[in-house]
Design goal:
Layout lengths: L1 H4 L30 H9 L13 H12 L2 E4 L6 H7 L9 H4 L4 E5 L5 H15 L6 E4 L3 H7 L8
Parallel strand pairs: 1-2, 2-3
Length: 158
């Protein structure tokens, strides 16, 4: 299964796990009515907006490192708010590797409900922040499902 072979980050936490994922907490099945202790356990897994973007968080460091070294990155449900963009934004150590990494990362992302004008601004920022070529950034006003349908061949991780 593809999802078992890729690293997925949830900087703001999750409220549960899917059947194939290992669970640290008392999980709630999709569509099930939760018990009080399950709700309490789920609440422990959620981070506030500022907790999710803590510069010293191991998750933030890992997200940045994986994006820096990836040949492909898929960004879903992100909304491109300034704080979210800062979460991905490389730190100053990336400047050392700029020439080695320029143009190597291909970025795919959803932008459902975001205007074309704003999508172009987002592409410029991603291009600057991640040294990605503008033509290697695919951001479209589609849902997650539509993105995977549209780019299924480009996203194969064989």
């Amino acid at each position: 299964m593809l999802v078992n072979s890729i690293k997925i980050y949830h900087p703001y936490g999750t409220i549960g796990f899917l059947p194939w994922q290992s669970a640290q907490y008392n999980t709630i099945g999709y569509g099930e009515s939760p018990l009080a202790n399950q709700l309490f356990d789920s609440a422990k897994q959620i981070k506030t907006f500022t907790e999710g973007t803590d510069e010293n968080s191991s998750d933030v460091i890992a997200i940045r490192e994986h994006i820096r070294t990836s040949s492909r990155a898929v960004i879903l449900g992100f909304a491109f708010h300034e704080l979210n963009m800062d979460l991905l934004c490389p730190n100053s150590s990336w400047l050392v590797d700029k020439e080695k990494s320029y143009g190597k990362t291909i970025i795919f992302s959803t932008a459902h409900g975001i205007s074309n004008h704003n999508i172009q601004a987002i592409k410029r920022r991603l291009s600057n922040d991640f040294f990605a070529k503008h033509e290697n950034i695919y951001i479209d006003g589609m849902t997650c499902n539509e993105l995977f349908d549209e780019y299924s061949h480009s996203l194969r991780f064989a």
